[in-house]
TrEMBL record:
InterPro entries: Cyt_c-like_dom, Cyt_c-like_dom_sf, Cyt_c_ID. Residues 50-135 form the Cytochrome c domain. GO terms for molecular function: electron transfer activity; heme binding; iron ion binding. Heme c binds at residues 64, 68, 113. Signal peptide: none annotated. It holds the Pfam family Cytochrom_C. Binds 1 heme c group covalently per subunit. It comes from Algoriphagus halophilus. Keywords: Electron transport, Heme, Iron, Metal-binding, Transport. This is Cytochrome c.
Amino acid sequence: MTRIFLLLFLSFVGCTSIDKKKSIENEVISSKADDYFRVIEGQDEEIDTSLVKRGEILIAYSDCLDCHKIENRAKGPAFLDISKRYPYQEVYIDLLSQRIISGGNGSWGYPVMSAHPNLTVEDSKAMAAFVLSMENLRD
Ligand code: HEC
């Protein structure tokens, strides 16, 4: 008797986890279809132009552009979309610099971004500042 219950229980657990997986897959597909992203509200802080310039150069010499383009989606989200999503603020520069170093996934519904453990925090902050300044440079 307990065996039957156990079987029923296991098949129930099996079904729900498959459903869950499907709904996650659907979410990813729909978020890709309309390129949805949630904009984080906030005032931009004053742009540190020398930091931004340094970030631009560092990015040009790194592997970032293998996966990112400025205006269009590629393997990763467009830098312009990233800058539209986050305000240019010290806190977001810090956050994104950590993500650049450790890699990430789940924020944009794309596959995983590779980690860059050899970057210093200083350099990855400059890169994040360049990415976040993009929207302002283009207005
Ligand atoms: C192998 C491909 C790849 C490379 C190389 C790459 N990225 Fe990414 N990047 C991605 C993907 C994919 C995402 C979206 C991850 C997600 O959905 O959270 C992303 C996301 C980001 C984000 C946004 C993170 C967030 O949480 O919103 C920033 C900023 C970023 N990348 C900067 C960089 C910089 C700077 C470099 C170079 C040092 C770089 N990337 C190299 C693929 C890549």
